[in-house]
Structure formats: structure tokens, C-alpha cells
């Protein structure tokens, strides 16, 4: 374990909740006071801001919990309080957004597409690596932004832990991206990245992933 891992502030989760405006109003003042006195939490807040800022431009349906999730939470609250569940209203729109499924794009690597911009060749997704899984060497066609949610991820010689943010400049390359523990991250990147290594499976997986992104984009068109 790295020294920085052992010294990680115990209030880091509160800082993440503050950055995403997920804290109750009664907790905000205490969180702000702690962040002001904690250099570690101030750095974490700065690393989270680029990711949070990107959420602002996402469609509101992307940020709203799915109907199924709202229903599960309502039933759990009802069980704990003994009251009738307050279920979310049924959405009647034919174009209502539905949460995408996890799709395996290579052995040990799964993606859940969140949003696409086909004109700019940009995609936002959740990426999940199984323990020991790796991504081949590649060159960035555009800016790549990654925020690690859980687990540990290595990008060449750089180790990321939950809460870390990584910026990849256009034209820069990563020789090896892998996880010993398994991990989940938010990835905003280009669909035109150039692979310089081979997937540990058929190359059709990348073609399939791109088609899935295009289909997903068309489903979101009004």
C-alpha cells in the first residue's frame, strides 16, 4: 500500500458527495469547513470538478434515476417505515430513455454507454474491468477523461485509486491500461482512438461497440 493511500482523508467520500451536490443542506456547512482546512480534500475536490462540470451538459433524463431504481428505493423506504410506497409516475413517452445494459466488448471488459455525440465522435460511458483485465496500447484521437469510481487502475506507470482523475491529451498514447483488483470508471473519450495493440478477442468486438454507440444515439433522438 502506498503512503498516500494510508493517509487518505476519512472525509473523502463526503467531499465527493459535496462535489456532486448530494449532501443534505444540514451537512454542507460542515463539509465546506472541513474542505477548507484539509489540503487532501481540496485536491480531491479540484480533481472532481472537470467530471462534474461535464454532467451539466448532459440531458436531464441521463441524470434522473431510472423508474425501476426509484421504485426499488420507494419499496425499501416503505418496508423500513411501514408506510405505503410512493411509486414514481409511469412515463408514457414513446421516446422515454431506458437505462442501457452492460455489454462485454472484450474478455474482462464491459461498457455501459451513457451518451454519444456522433458529430464530434465523442462517447461517455461506464467501463468495468475484471481483475487482471487489460486494454491494448492505443493513441488518443481526442481528449480522454477518466474518473475512477472503485478498484485500482494502472495507466502505464501511474496508479489510480477511487476518486482519481486522469487527463489524456489528443495524440498522446497509453501503452498499457490494466487492473489487478478490477475497477469501474467513468470514461469520456473519442470513438476514433487508434489501437496499436490487439484485443484479447476478435477485432469485431470494437466494431460491435461502435455500432452499439450509434444505435444508442439514434434511440435518444427526439
Give the topology.
Blueprint (H helix, E strand, L loop, with lengths): L2 H4 L5 H8 L5 H13 L1 H18 L3 H4 L3 H15 L21 E4 L2 E9 L4 E8 L4 E2 L2 E2 L4 E8 L1 E3 L2 E3 L4 E4 L4 E2 L2 E2 L4 E8 L3 E2 L8 H16 L3
Antiparallel strand pairs: 1-2, 2-3, 3-12, 4-11, 5-10, 5-13, 6-9, 6-12, 7-8, 7-11
Helix pairs in contact: 2-4, 3-4
Main sheet specs? 6 strands, antiparallel
CATH architecture of the largest domain: Sandwich
CATH superfamily name of the largest domain? Jelly Rolls
Q: What is the highest CATH level, the class of the largest domain? A: Mainly Beta
End-to-end separation:
49 Å
Strand content: 25-35%
Poorly predicted tracts of residues: 200-210, 216-222
What count of structural domains? 3
Give, in spatial order, the strands making up the sheet with the most strands. 1-2-3-12-6-9
Succession of helices and strands? HHHHHHEEEEEEEEEEEEEH
Structural class: alpha+beta
CATH topology of the largest domain: Jelly Rolls
Radius of gyration: 19 Å
Number of strands: 13
Silhouette: globular
Q: What portion of residues is helical?
A: 25-40%
Could you give a short description of this structure?
With 222 residues, this protein is an alpha+beta fold. The chain is built from seven helices and 13 strands.
Amino acid at each position: 500500500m502506498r503512503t498516500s493511500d494510508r493517509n487518505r482523508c476519512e472525509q473523502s467520500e463526503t467531499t465527493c458527495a459535496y462535489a456532486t451536490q448530494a449532501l443534505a443542506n444540514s451537512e454542507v456547512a460542515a463539509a465546506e469547513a472541513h474542505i477548507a482546512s484539509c489540503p487532501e480534500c481540496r485536491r480531491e475536490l479540484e480533481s472532481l470538478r472537470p467530471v462534474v462540470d461535464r454532467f451539466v451538459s448532459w440531458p436531464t433524463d441521463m441524470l434522473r434515476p431510472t423508474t425501476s431504481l426509484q421504485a426499488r428505493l420507494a419499496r425499501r423506504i416503505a418496508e423500513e417505515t411501514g408506510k405505503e410506497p410512493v411509486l414514481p409516475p409511469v412515463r408514457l413517452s414513446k421516446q422515454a430513455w431506458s437505462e442501457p445494459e452492460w455489454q462485454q466488448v472484450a474478455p474482462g471488459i464491459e461498457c455501459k454507454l451513457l451518451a454519444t455525440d456522433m458529430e464530434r465522435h465523442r462517447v461517455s460511458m461506464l467501463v468495468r474491468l475484471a481483475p487482471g483485465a487489460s486494454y491494448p496500447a492505443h493513441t488518443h484521437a481526442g481528449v480522454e477523461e477518466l474518473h475512477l469510481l472503485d478498484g485500482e487502475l494502472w495507466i502505464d506507470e501511474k496508479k489510480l485509486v477511487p476518486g482519481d482523475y486522469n487527463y489524456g491529451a489528443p495524440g498522446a498514447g497509453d501503452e498499457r491500461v490494466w487492473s489487478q483488483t478490477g475497477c469501474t470508471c467513468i470514461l469520456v473519450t473519442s470513438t476514433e482512438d487508434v489501437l496499436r495493440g490487439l484485443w484479447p478477442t476478435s477485432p469485431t468486438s470494437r466494431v460491435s461497440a461502435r455500432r452499439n454507440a450509434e444505435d444508442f444515439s439514434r434511440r435518444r433522438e427526439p
